[in-house]
Each structure stands twice: as C-alpha cells, then as structure tokens.
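Recall from the previous lesson that a structure prediction takes nothing but the amino acid sequence as input. Here we apply that procedure to DNA-binding ferritin-like protein (Dps family) from Secundilactobacillus similis DSM 23365 = JCM 2765. The sequence below is the only information supplied.
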Amino acid sequence: MTGNDMTRQMKAFEQQVQTLPADYQDAWQLIQKTVWSRTDLTGRNLMPIFDGIVDLMTEAAADGLSVTEALGDDIAAFADNVAATSGAQNLQDRWRATLNRRVAKKLGRSL
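The prediction returns the following tokens.
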C-alpha cells in the first residue's frame, strides 16, 4: 500500500461517512484524531481499523441507532480501545516497550 493508496482509501472513508447522519460524522472526526495517535511511521496499520469502524457506523446508522447507542458515550475511548485491541500502539506504548527492552538488556535478560 502506497501513500496514494492510503489517501484514496481515506477519501473513500470520508465519502462513506458523509452519507451518515450528522452525529456519526462528528464522531468520525473524533475517531480519526484518536486512532491516528496510534499510527506507525506510515499509518498503514490503521486502514483496517478505520475500515471496520466505518462499516460498524454504516450498519448502525442503517439500523436506526444513534451514535451513542452504536459506539457508547465515550467515543474517544471506544476508538482507542478498538485501536489497542487491533494491536496499534501509541507513542507511550512504544516508549514503554523500548524502555523495557533496554532495562532487560542491561540486566542480562530477554523479553
């Protein structure tokens, strides 16, 4: 997947979200901010996460559910949990892993 592919995919997600009710569109903005904080250097790891969330939102809207019924009261926490469960690490997670590896190396242990 190239940068252009990612750009096209994000535009496709945006177009799909634009067909949803306004509360879903607002939630999408918050979801993007939250999930992008868990990117690797390229962001490619996030495309499947975004795809799943957009599909969930589309189905929930089609079923007539409000955004809070579909995603919960804390949308940022929902997005962060989905990203974390999918294995995407935030900067703090990466720093923690690096620190743990370095400490283990100094102590002569392996992780």
